[in-house]
């Protein structure tokens, strides 16, 4: 009896046969291409720019995801509030906030979460785990976005551009402070 390709993928997913590790943070992947795509997120280099706003991304897939979530016309509406979404799974997840459904529970403190990745991120507050390591210095971070912000200081990349003058900044908070100065002019 042979197992179909789709079933093998399903089984592999559930058995977590992920043997290719990211050399930066140790996250496991089932394919080399997935790991290489993930590795771009560690570089801090934001190569792909959104044509509709100043946001930049390390991977084309991140840019595509951003464009569909932020700039596409919402087609799915919540009947309980003004929430509007571009994807049906976004509406489904949103509805959990209304119903109070929190399917993912922290093993340490019983706190519950709508999103599995939010629960994993929360667990690091208990374990002290900092899987996102800087390749330029000894610093490590519990969240990937903190590593990305940190890497900008090493690579000198300014991704937040002022629309009123030629200055650019590494952090959104720096741009906000700068922009407040324009309001006082």
Automatic annotation (TrEMBL):
Keywords: Metal-binding, Repeat, Zinc, Zinc-finger. Signal peptide: none annotated. One of its GO terms (biological process) is regulation of DNA-templated transcription. The keyword Nucleus does not apply. It comes from the Eukaryota. The keyword Zinc applies. Pfam families: zf-C2H2. One of its GO terms (molecular function) is zinc ion binding. GO terms for cellular component: nucleus. Residues 20-47, 48-76, 76-103, 104-131, 132-159, 160-185 form the C2H2-type domain. PROSITE patterns: ZINC_FINGER_C2H2_1, ZINC_FINGER_C2H2_2. PANTHER family: KRUEPPEL-LIKE TRANSCRIPTION FACTOR. This is Zinc finger protein 571-like isoform X3. The gene is LOC115627866.
């Amino acid at each position: 009896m042979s197992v179909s390709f789709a079933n093998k993928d399903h089984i592999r997913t559930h058995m977590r046969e992920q043997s290719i590790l990211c050399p930066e943070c140790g996250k496991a992947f089932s394919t080399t291409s997935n790991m290489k795509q993930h590795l771009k997120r560690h570089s801090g280099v934001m190569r792909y720019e959104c044509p509709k706003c100043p946001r930049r991304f390390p991977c084309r897939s991140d840019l595509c995801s951003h464009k569909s979530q932020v700039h596409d016309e919402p087609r799915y509406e919540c009947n309980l509030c003004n929430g509007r979404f571009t994807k049906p799974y976004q509406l489904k997840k949103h509805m959990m906030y209304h119903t109070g459904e929190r399917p993912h529970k922290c093993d340490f403190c019983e706190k519950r979460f709508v999103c599995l990745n939010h629960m994993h991120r929360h667990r690091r507050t208990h374990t002290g785990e900092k899987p996102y390591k800087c390749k330029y210095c000894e610093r490590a971070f519990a969240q990937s976005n903190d590593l990305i912000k940190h890497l900008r200081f090493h690579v000198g990349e300014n991704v937040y551009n002022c629309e009123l003058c030629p200055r650019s900044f590494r952090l959104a908070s720096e741009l906000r402070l700068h922009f407040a100065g324009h309001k006082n002019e």
